[in-house]
Amino acid sequence: LVLVLAALCCLTSPWGEKNLAGASIVVGFVVWGLVTSMGGPTGPALNPARDLMPRLLHAILPIPHKGSSRWGEAWIPVIAPIAGAILGVVMYKSLFA
């Protein structure tokens, strides 16, 4: 959702129609920023479904000597993209409207 918002903002803004290369650079930097800010040693959970299923399987399957499923962090991949999208819309409207 964040990537779609960034691409739409770049393409619909006054400077984006003339500079499509700039739009791809902005989307690339958005992906880079998301991966470096949210990714740990195993990578970021940009997709809530991709984060939830391994957590559920880890909690359900009888794996010997397994650690915690870390349910305290399970809300982040669900809430953060929604909050980021809302914040992005507010920032775009305040800057370009």
Quickly give the structural class. Answer: mainly alpha
Q: Proportion of β residues?
A: under 5%
Radius of gyration: 17 Å
Q: N-to-C terminal Cα separation, in Å?
A: 21 Å
On the 0 to 100 scale, the average pLDDT is 77
Low-confidence stretches: none
Helix content: 55-70%
Backbone shape:
elongated
**Count of distinct structural domains:** 1
Can you characterise this structure?
- The protein has 97 residues and is an all-alpha fold.
- It has one domain (2-96).
- Helices cover 66% and strands 0% of the residues.
- The longest helix has 21 residues, at 76-96.
Q: Can you give me a brief rundown of this structure?
A:
The chain has 97 residues and is mainly alpha-helical. Helix content is 66%, strand content 0%.
